[in-house]
Write a structure and sequence with these properties.
- The complex is a heterodimer.
- Chain A has 15 helices and nine strands.
- In chain A, helix 1 crosses helix 2, helix 7 packs across helix 10 and helix 9 runs antiparallel to helix 10.
- Chain A is about 50% helix and about 10% strand.
- By secondary structure, chain A is mainly alpha-helical.
- In chain B, a hairpin with a 3-residue loop joins strand 1 and strand 2.
- Chain B is α+β, with helices and mostly antiparallel strands.
- The two termini of chain B are about 20 Å apart.
- Chain B is built from three helices and five strands.
- In chain B, helix 1 crosses helix 2.
- Classes of the chains: A mainly alpha, B alpha+beta.
- At the A-B interface, strand 1, helix 1, helix 2, strand 2 and strand 3 of A face helix 1, helix 2, strand 1, strand 4 and strand 5 of B.
- Strand 7 of chain A pairs antiparallel with strand 4 of chain B.
Amino acid sequence: MNAKITFPELVDMVADATSSNRRVSELFLKELFATISQALIEGENVTVKGLGTFRLARVAARRIVSVSTGDLTEVPSHNKLVFDPDKKLADELNQPFAQFETIVLDDSITDEMIMGPDNPVDDEPSQDEIPVQEPEVEPAPAQAVCPPPFRPSALMKAAPDPVPVPAATLAPEPATSAVPVAEAPAEVEPEPSPSESIPNVQETESAPIVQEQESEQEQEQEISPRDYTLAQLQQEQRQAVRQATRKGFLWGALSMLALCALAWWALSIKGGHAEPAQVISDTLVNDSAQASDVAKEATAPPLVTDTVSPTNYLTKMAVKHYGKQDFWVYIYEENKDKISNPNAVPPGTVLVIPPADKYGIDPADKTSVETAKKKSFELFSKFK
Amino acid sequence: MENKELINRISGKLGRNKTDVKKLLDAFVGVVKNRSSELDSIAIPGFGTFETRKRAERVTVLPGSGKRLLVPPRVVLSFKVSNVLKSKLK
C-alpha cells in the first residue's frame, strides 16, 4: 500500500513471475524502456498491450506571467508525453469504485446539501483550532533575546532565598493555622522599617515556585497539600492588600510583612538556598524605586511556572491555568524575553504563568476573552 | 508502434526469441497491474513513474444544458515522465 517500488525490486518481481533469472529480466526491462524511449524520441506512439499507450502531444507556445515579479515570459512550443492507461487495466484498478455511476443532480439538490456533511465539520474547528495548531508546531531551537518586560532577571535568580525576617522562626506551620500566625507578627510591628519591606518586594515578585513536572511523583505528592495552602494564602494576601489600599501605606506595609512571613514559611519548607547579601542589595535598589508600587505589586500572588514540553505548550498551559486557551497570549506577554516565536517554543523552557488578575483574565467574561482573541490574531499575523 | 512491433524490436536487440520476450512483457504488465491495484508506485529511472491516484468525487456542470453531474471517485493509473526523458522529448 502506497509503497515505492524501485527498479531492482521490479526486476525481481518480473524474474519471479517468469521464473527466469534476474539477469534476463533486468536486461529485458532495460531494453524495453530504452526501446520505448527511442521510439518516442523518434516521434512514434507506443502501445503496450494490457498497459496503455504512450503518446506525444504537442503543447503550443504560451505566455506566462511570473507570480512574484510580474514578468511576462513565453514558454516555447514543446512535446509532452501522455500516458493513456489501457481500458481494461483502468477498469480493474477502479474496481473499488466500480459500483458508482455518474448521477445527474436535480435542481432541488443544492450545493449546500452536497457539501452538507463536510461544512460544519470544517467550519467549526477553524476558529478554535487556529490557536491550538500553531503552537503545536514543534519548536525550533531558537532562543529569543528580547528586552525584558519589567522583571529584572536578578530577582528571579534570588528567588529561593531565606531572608532574615522576624516571622521566619514561625516558618513550618500547618496549613490551616498558617495565615493567622503569619499575620500576628505583622500586627505586632508598629511601623515597618525599610529593611523589613525589602524581602517583601522581593517576595512578591519571585515567591514560591510551584514546579509542575509529571515525571516526579514524589514532588507532586509534596506539592499538592502545599498548593492547597497556597491558594488559601493567596486569598488572605488579597484581603490584606485590599485593606492596605483602604487604610493607607501603614496597613499596606503590615500586609507586606504578612506576605513576607508567608513567603518565608513557604520557602523554608522548600529548603531555600542562595546568598542573602545579593538579594538585599538588589532589593534595596528596587525598593527605593518601587516603594510607591509596593502596594500594587503586593497583589501579585506567588509565581507559578510551567515547563514547555512537546505535550505542554502555551495554549495547553492557558487551558490549565485560566480555563481557556485564548489566554495564552498573556503567558506569552509575561515571558516575551524567553519566547522568540510563540509558535515554536523550545521544550524545557520554564515560563512564568502570570496571575489571572494581572491582565484581567476571566474566562467567564466575554470581553476579556474577546480581547485575548484579538491579541492572539495580532500575534499570529506578526509571526506568520 | 504496437505491441507486436515492440516485441519484435526487443527480441531483435536482445537476441532472444519472441515468445520469451512476450512472456517477459506480459509479466511486466502483470506486475504493474498488481502493484497498482495496491496503490503502489513503480519508479523506473530514466523513464518515469507509474503511480495510482485517487480522484475525489466532484460535481461538474454540462456547459450545454447546465445540468449538474455528480462524478463518483475513481482510482486511476497515472504515469509521470522522468525529467531525463522529458527533456529529450522536447
